[in-house]
Structures are given as structure tokens and as C-alpha cells.
Design goal:
FDM1-5/IDN2_XH; FDM1-5/IDN2; 3-stranded antiparallel beta sheet; Factor of DNA methylation 1-5/IDN2 domain-containing protein
Length: 135
């Protein structure tokens, strides 16, 4: 159980891809720069790469894979970076579509889902017991 920043792009795939393309020192700088660039792009409300489709009679927003910026990202940098950007974009759209900024959420990292209040309280109590034993 921990805090996940919904809509924040994971830096690891950027590092992995840049390590393959650039010398080590340059790779770290390039990965951080590229990550920051895409994080800023996600925040822009005028960029909305979603389309509405009907699923079982209900309208649903999905990523528009024909979006030029996303297509260029996938072609230039590959699937790993594309996937983390799309994941962050979906999270941002789900948790804060109007403001387009990162939102903190209690998260169950083991099961990759939002943590329930019961899980959070249980985790805190477990941490307190461990802390008391150490004293």
C-alpha cells in the first residue's frame, strides 16, 4: 500500500529506451528531458487524444490511436514509452479530466488497483505494530 501519483509518467521505460540509443551519460539527460516534455504535453487541455465509442449501448472514451502526436511517439520511441504515456493519459483523464494535473491516490501496488480504506487501515496498524516491536 502506498501513494501513486495518477497521471504521472513512469521514468523507467524512458531510461531503458534511451540507454539503448545513447551513451550512458547522455541517456539519463535525454530520458529525463523526454519524460518532462511528455508530462507537460499531458497537462495541456487543448490536446485531447480521445474518441467516443459505443460499447454495449453506452458511450465510452477511448484513446484515439490515429492521434498524430501519439502515432509519432510510438514510431519514434517505441511501444514501451508509448504505453506509459497512454497509461498516464488515461489515469489523468479518469481522475482529473478538467484540471489535467497529477492526483495522488492510495494504491495497492501488489494488485495494481486503488486501495480500499480497510486495506489502508490494516497496513497502518501493521506498520505501527512493527514500529513498537523495534523499540
Amino acid at each position: 500500500i502506498g501513494i501513486k501519483r495518477m497521471g504521472e509518467i513512469d521514468l523507467k521505460p524512458f531510461h531503458n529506451t534511451c540507454k539503448l540509443r545513447f551513451p550512458l551519460e547522455e541517456a539519463q539527460i535525454k530520458a529525463s528531458t523526454l519524460n518532462s516534455l511528455w508530462q507537460e504535453r499531458l497537462k495541456k487541455p487543448e490536446w485531447h487524444p480521445f474518441k467516443i465509442v459505443t460499447v454495449e449501448g453506452k458511450p465510452e472514451e477511448v484513446i484515439n490511436e490515429d492521434d498524430e502526436m501519439l502515432r509519432n511517439l510510438k514510431e519514434e520511441w517505441g511501444d514501451d514509452i508509448y504505453e506509459v504515456v497512454v497509461t498516464a493519459l488515461k489515469e489523468m483523464n479518469e481522475y482529473n479530466p478538467s484540471g489535467r494535473y497529477v492526483v495522488s491516490e492510495l494504491w495497492n501496488f501488489k494488485e495494481k488497483r486503488k486501495a480500499t480504506l480497510k486495506e489502508v487501515v490494516g497496513y497502518i496498524l501493521k506498520q505501527l505494530k512493527t514500529l513498537k516491536r523495534k523499540r
